[in-house]
Write a structure and sequence with these properties.
- This protein is an alpha+beta fold.
- The strands form 3 sheets. A 4-stranded antiparallel sheet has the order 4-3-6-5. Strands 2-1-7 form a 3-stranded antiparallel sheet.
- Helix 7 crosses helix 12.
Length: about 350
């Protein structure tokens, strides 16, 4: 070898060694949300925490897809939540929202009170996480709730709440009814005449239900359908039922399986002051979901294909297989115009 060529070759080898070394040590993040990266280590801890929570409810973390491991399903679930947490933290900073240490302590103390502190400690230890990890986890969840609450206030007026209450009154009405189901209107008219005849009693209604109702399950119990939210019934039945007062009997109501004669036993309607909380939660969840969809598109979300692919519509991380041609589709972050961060490409050497 020509000594004059040895030095350049040696220098080139050193440079390539350094490049390969750097490539091997700089692992791609699990996900990148705008300019914020989520590391494999952070994801591993979060997955353990979600496994801890799921275990308390005797459930599994995440929904396993066909041919997928439980660990993979949990990682996907946890990563989707972490993407949401990153965006919520950014919103909170911009709108001066925060979660106090007292709020975190109260939530953890509620958990301890319900399950027992020793049981909680044991479950944490078995999943490889600590009380500090739990505190941070709770803070993230409470911050997302705070963001949702802020979005609720910004998008839903009191007048709109009252409109939604009236429009969805069946959801807030609990009824206890008996019914008799027959096939024809003529038969239903006959039933109605018998149960509303002078001197007819509830026992008469129940006896006739046992005798003629084609709904044999409720008929065996005198037509009793139990106490349930009115919204669980088909709209024709529910509308006719809630119009009744206790003790009243409806005229025959047509339904796809025949004709009903309904007797109201009791009815309770949740007041607006109580129902508004539930309406706000539902509307707030929708508002949060819509905001997250807009925000993820604006900032760009990239997920390492070894964990899956970010679904901008569902805001979840979907499973992908390394054999799929689309496995590298996340090379460009969702919502990006093309200048990706690289976090969504195949893992570096």
């Amino acid at each position: 070898m020509d000594p004059r060529r040895a030095a350049p070759v040696f220098v080139l080898a050193i440079v390539m060694l350094a490049v390969l070394s750097a490539c091997g040590s700089a692992a791609s993040p699990a996900a990148t949300v705008g300019g914020t990266s989520i590391s494999d280590v952070q994801l591993a801890t979060e997955a353990k925490l979600y496994t801890f929570v799921a275990g308390l409810n005797q459930q599994k973390c995440g929904t396993v897809d066909t041919g997928e491991s439980q660990e993979s399903a949990c990682n996907r679930f946890a990563l989707g939540a972490m993407i949401e947490n990153v965006l919520a933290a950014q919103y909170a900073a911009q709108h001066r929202l925060s979660v106090t240490d007292a709020d975190v302590r109260t939530t953890v103390q509620t958990l301890d009170s319900g399950l027992g502190a020793d049981a909680v400690n044991k479950a944490l230890a078995s999943n490889g996480v600590t009380r500090d990890d739990l505190g941070r986890f709770v803070r993230d969840i409470l911050l997302v709730r705070a963001v949702q609450g802020d979005l609720e206030k910004a998008q839903i007026t009191d007048a709109q709440l009252h409109d939604l209450y009236r429009q969805n009154i069946l959801q807030f009405t609990t009824i206890h009814v008996e019914h008799i189901l027959v096939k024809t209107k003529a038969k239903a008219d006959s039933v109605y005449a018998q149960v509303t005849a002078p001197g007819a009693t509830e026992k008469d209604f129940q006896a006739l239900a046992k005798k003629v109702s084609t709904d044999t399950q409720s008929g065996a119990n005198g037509g009793d359908l139990g106490t349930v939210p009115a919204s669980q019934f088909v709209s024709e039945f529910a509308t006719a039922a809630v119009a009744l007062k206790p003790g009243q009997i409806s005229r025959p109501v047509q339904f796809q399986f025949g004709w009903h004669v309904i007797r109201m036993i009791s009815k309770q309607v949740a007041p607006f002051s109580q129902a508004s909380t539930q309406i706000l939660q539902t509307q707030g969840a929708q508002a949060l979901n819509a905001w997250l969809q807009t925000e993820t598109k604006a900032v760009g979300v990239s997920v390492n294909p070894k964990y899956g692919r970010f679904n901008q519509q569902t805001l979840a991380v979907d499973r992908i297989s390394s054999t799929e041609p689309s496995a590298t589709a996340t090379a460009t972050p969702v919502g990006s115009s093309g200048a990706g961060t690289g976090a969504g490409t195949s893992p570096s050497p």
